[in-house]
Amino acid sequence: MTRSQLVDNIRRNKSYLCIGLDTDARKLPKHLQSSVDGVYEFNRQIIEATKSFCVAYKINAAFYEALGSKGWEIMERTVGLIPDTHFRIADAKRGDIGNTSSLYARAFFETLKFDAVTVNPYMGEDSIRPFLEYDGKWAIILGLTSNPGASDFELQPAGSALLYEQVLKKSSQWGTTENLMFVVGATQPESFKRIRGLAPQHFYLVPGVGAQGGDIETISRAAIIKDFGLLINVSRSIIYASMGEDFTVQAANAASSFQRQMISFII
Amino acid sequence: MTRSQLVDNIRRNKSYLCIGLDTDARKLPKHLQSSVDGVYEFNRQIIEATKSFCVAYKINAAFYEALGSKGWEIMERTVGLIPDTHFRIADAKRGDIGNTSSLYARAFFETLKFDAVTVNPYMGEDSIRPFLEYDGKWAIILGLTSNPGASDFELQPAGSALLYEQVLKKSSQWGTTENLMFVVGATQPESFKRIRGLAPQHFYLVPGVGAQGGDIETISRAAIIKDFGLLINVSRSIIYASMGEDFTVQAANAASSFQRQMISFII
């Protein structure tokens, strides 16, 4: 998906909401079978119920890998459920030496049909480069994450700035605003203005809203640009809005509620 | 596998060689079927031919993920081929927020029966912690990697040291010498003495020997300690020593040649 297609989809759905399919086989509503097939059925119903309120889905690879090869197969089948109008993100945090990263890129962009994959910048340019070599595909580089551990290295001084700032500054040169995004956690909204200065035109994928405490309005006010440049991810607060038979209704309600907070930012 | 078991195995096999199963379905010897089953058969024969010359096998997850769920299944079956006497490493470079890393740990330590998994330190302590909560299992944290991109961040100043030095210093406090190792690339042997000062008792997993240019003697001289503290990984130079029908013989010869260089360091 190109940037202009993504922006068009945001305008059409009046939403820059991304829904995280962090589907845990051990936490399915009771009436769904507690199995890998249950995960698929849960995802199918969640996507059906929420797709008009969002523009992207983010599949958290860990939840599927925990189920072994059958879980990986459910991930493959879940990507196939996401409509073409929606941006498909593999939240996989990959990154390795160049020839190995090429295989991760093949895994997520060719074998699986994702539009984007989250990648870790620690190993530097050649570990990210293979993800930037596909037309219409994106690397989403970890900048500032939403977890407590962000303070261990990301928020530590590195040269004349903080490490995550160096990452944004340097890695934004490796690609373009058409194939590179950044993860910037919602739990640090006070940093957004400074971050916009470092990567003014890039899209940000913002996790940490909902269960992790960030809120849509604060983030949007601080980070939105003319063609949005923003995908805000919510996982647990939507997909686990109810654990009962009404889980699709409650997920739709939660997604709709997040989406309504975005309307005023979409002109 | 505990540290003392690993050390005993090194003494018994007179080897601290780890063989990397970076098995590319597109590069199998011609007489093997070019398919996922071909990958399994290749791994089976390589393990059988080389197991007396090494103490560990490292499975590079990317090569299996590139084949989709069938590749993940071959990874599962390949782990099952590695004898109990050998240390099983998933080279997967994982790491995410705590609740997600718990699922990666479950994937590699429970669903798959690996002894260790490589992890990326960028996101800090809570992203690594779940990998340290299994008895006899190990997290292998990326310190200094062997690729050109190491100069982008790892080798940049961070506070009073370089970033990878801060990583070693801080993260060595998160676990013990019994559940935490570090990746330290062989292409930087001049750094080994300084690194030993930062994490004097930890095991290092050293990639970069063979195809990437490092050599056994230089590394061993610089980094070995009383109970070794060293696993040197070789992938391509062993498993692709020959692309013909004699590939097992040539892989065994290559593995044996690397192992012979280790004997004088094992007392």
Care to describe what's here?
The structure is a homodimer of 267-residue chains. Chain A is α/β, with parallel strands linked by helices and 267 residues long. Chain A has one domain (3-263): Aldolase class I (TIM Barrel, Alpha-Beta Barrel). Chain A is 40% helix and 18% strand. In chain A, the strands form 2 sheets. Chain A has an 8-stranded parallel barrel with strand order 1-2-3-4-5-8-9-10, surrounded by 6 helices. A two-stranded antiparallel sheet of chain A has the order 6-7. In chain A, strand 8 (180-184), helix 8 (192-198) and strand 9 (203-206) form a beta-alpha-beta unit. In chain A, helix 2 packs parallel to helix 4 and helix 2 packs across helix 11 (247-263). Chain A starts with a helix and ends with a helix. Chains A and B meet through helix 3, helix 4, strand 3, helix 5 and helix 6 of A and helix 3, helix 4, strand 3, helix 5 and helix 6 of B.
Largest sheet of chain A: 8 strands, parallel, barrel
Q: Given the C-alpha coordinates, what overall shape of chain A results?
A: globular
Q: Specify the number of helices of chain A.
A: 11
Helix content percent band of chain A: 40-55%
Name of the CATH homologous superfamily of chain A: Aldolase class I
Spans of chain A of at least 5 consecutive residues whose pLDDT stays below 50 are none
Strand content of chain A: 15-25%
- Total strand segments of chain A: 10
SSE topology string of chain A? HEHEHHEHEHEEEHEHEHEHH
Structural class of the secondary elements of chain A? alpha/beta
Biggest chain contact: A-B, 60 and 61 residues
The CATH class of chain A is identified as Alpha Beta
CATH topology of chain A: TIM Barrel
Radius of gyration of chain A: 18 Å
